[in-house]
Amino acid sequence: MKGITPRPLRDLADERLTAEREETKYLVPPVRWQVLAAELSLQLPGHRFTGEGANRLPDPHHCVTTIYFDTPSRALFRAAAATPDRNLKVRAKEYYDLHPSLAETATDPDQIVHYQPWLWFEVKRREGARTSKRRFRLPKRDVAQFFAEGRVTPEALELMEGDESLREVVETCRTFSEPLSPVCLVNYRRLSWQSDESDLRVTFDRELASFAAPRDLWARRHALVRSALGTPVAREPMGILEVKCRGALPAWLDDFLVRVGGPTIPFSKFVTASRAVEAHG
To answer: Are 138 and 156 in contact (CB under 8 A)?
Structure first.
């Protein structure tokens, strides 16, 4: 339309992923993992990142490392543990792919890892079953400066020009009376499926491991792979199935969740990891 500049497709795709929606979680024992993945793959297209810097190699293991922030008094952990249906989380995520099939020919461990040189910083709110999320992308090389001095390089600012999500995330963080810093990390392998209209998204996370935040976290330039995070303070033997939907669930998914998903649970990676880190001193 004349006089209106189209928004980049990357922005529209991100809006669909972060829009307000209902979110429910289920614990799934390992014996059901294979059936779960097979049945979901018959009903929904598998979702794979295809944007800037996307990995084009076949058969990757998609992994996530999530960094959770809190105050010195652990205000966010206490609130999330006390009111699991009404809370706020501040976190950063790194997505990366592993290619075990390349291990025999690789001359360096980094050759089997594919990752983008940035982190996604997020504020996620939950009100009952509904969640909303605002996030922005920050190059890894700028993270230490961003936290130490509250500023980023001109190149990073240019990438984020006009980004309302950045403004909202920063303003939310400024509302706390105490400073925020990384307190724990959770690493896991992820499978995801998404409808063509992006109104239904299903993720399945397994092999969850929780870690204390490394002291040199912001100095690290390479992917935050599990082997680089130290000894886990906790492991979760169950898989976490999350259903994220705008609107009513399709009938096939209702039936599937009864057979495979079990009862809904208020599971929180943040609370689980924070509690484990606190217990280990």
So the answer is: yes
